[in-house]
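seq as requested:
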Amino acid sequence: MATVSTVPSRWERFKQSDFLYYFLNDKVAMFSFAVFMVFLLTALFAPLIAPYNPYDLSSIDIMDSELPPAWMMDGSAQFLLGTDDQGRDILSTILYGSRLSLTIGFLAVALQLLIGTIVGLCSGYFGGRIDGFLMRVADIQLSFSTMMVAIIVSAIFKASFGGQLYGEYAVIMLVFIIGFAEWPQYARTIRASVLAEREKEYVEAARVMGFGSLRIMFRHILPNCLSPILVISTVQVANAIMSEAALSFLGLGLPVDQPSLGSLINIGFTYIFSGSWWITAFPGIVLVILVLVINLLGDWLRDVFNPKLYKG
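struct tokens:
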């Protein structure tokens, strides 16, 4: 009697994959992923975890401003990491600030991915004048730094609509600025992959079968370009978080009433010479650790997807 072979599920294939095997045998990758998940979960559940709500003015007392951490002299057990110049709990503002920073980072990278994928696919697949034109646009875009784009856009927006309206839409503006400034990284990477894929037999077979260019690009070529996209996305999330922090530190990002890691560092920098070092030190440490673990994960992904580099 013939036995019927069962097709393994996606979860079973994942458990048997080399990706999971390499991950479980790399302590740095597991530790970095665990730390990142802690940041992500505490940011998502900040309203439930944070001792106070930094957006709730009724819970903030200006008399509690610049209190040191609980273990220092004059510290209060109510505020484990101390308070800022407005009397807000540092721990709570870090949790809410991480939430904003991660949100801006992921959304900005999503915008970069959308623009860069479309440009890179069209450039690599069609070639010729289209390739030349799109790559020259990418070169022009790369000549403008994120800071320069932020200064120009924020100055125009504030002059046209006022600072109050800019504060209300600061998150959207930062996502747009960071996303629009960094898309050429994706476009160049995807273009290089498409140039290597478009001459392969499966693409020629799709053309012979009469499939349209859009279907070939997005249904056939793009799935084979996911490895470099995943690697660059991990690195770009860290870069986007750093860009947001730098812009907020320079006063071009989120306003002081919307705590992000960058704006918290900016607030505390004013008071660091007066002895209130904790206002900027703790958000700075969190920012460094967050960016570090994301970069470590990105390096590991790069090595795993390139067998020539991975040493196990």
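Residues 90-126 form the longest helix (37 residues).
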